[in-house]
Amino acid sequence: MHKLMSFLSTVLEKILMFAMAAIVVTVTWQVFSRFIIQSPSSFTEELSRFLLIWIGVLGSAYAYNTKAHLGLDLFVEKMVPAKQAKVRILIEVLVMIFAGGVMVYGGALLVAMTVELKQTSAALGLNMGIIYSAVPISGALILLFCLDNINQLLKSATDETTVKGEL
User: Fold this and answer.
1) What's the rounded Cα separation, in Å, for the pair 99 and 60?
2) Separation of alpha carbons 55 and 43, rounded Å
3) Which of 130, 115, 2, 142 is nearest to 58 (CA)?
4) Contact 61, 104 (CB under 8 A)
5) Is the pTM value of this prediction over 0.70?
6) What is d(CA 155, CA 141) in angstroms, rounded to the nearest whole number?
7) What is the pLDDT of residue 161?
8) Per the count of CB atoms within 10 A, which of 28, 89, 104, 138 is most buried?
9) Following DSSP, what letter does each residue of 62-123 receive, concatenated?
10) Which residues lie across from 120 on neighbouring strands?
């Protein structure tokens, strides 16, 4: 499972790098067309906004997986190692509840409602469900990363127990 999560993380990293390059090109073109050509492009502002949404939401899943997100582990670090593992598993479960309930379930409801109402963006004419689908996709990725983290925590706890038992 860990190899699959590493692969997913690598793919997510490449998607985010592509999206970052795309937003730089889009904003550069917007600035160029507005100030140099004196004829602002009509779609670049909306495209850059949508790219920023996807970068922010998918970036949160990537940051969670790489442990680059904000976290206050001051109290956890002061605990004995046996309690640290239990608290870390509890934290992962709480994150799973949030990601599953709010991001996946709530995000899927938002996407379904948006598709049903046929909401489209003004300049690009995109169905807004495509834009909002970043939320449930990111939630699903966070759920998978949580499962992998729990698996790694349980595996390391089992390895420590085995090593202590052999001594």
Assistant:
1) 11
2) 18
3) 142
4) no
5) yes
6) 21
7) 62
8) 138
9) HHHHTT-S----HHHHTS-HHHHHHHHHHHHHHHHHHIIIIIIIIHHHHHHHHHHTT-B-TT
10) 127
